[in-house]
Design goal:
The protein is mainly α. The chain has one domain. The chain has three helices and no strands. It has helices at 11-15, 19-43, 49-77. Helix 2 packs antiparallel against helix 3 (49-77). It is elongated, with a radius of gyration of 17 Å.
Amino acid sequence: MKKKSSKKITAKDLFLISWRKLWIIVVTGFFSIMLHNAIYGLFNVEEAFFFIIVVFAIPIYFLIMVVYSIIYKLMKKK
């Protein structure tokens, strides 16, 4: 029988900036824009989900990551 991993996800795992997370943000934004435009082009329906991801969710997440990383680095120095 396999043992289940009991590793808990922490704020440090989610909000500390890394190159991998930045690339995930860029790729997610690109695909959200493409899906938004594709849905509109194919079905002539103004779709909001992918638009909201690009305009609101990704920038807010990026700002939270920047602020968290700055605070984390400042607290680590002390």
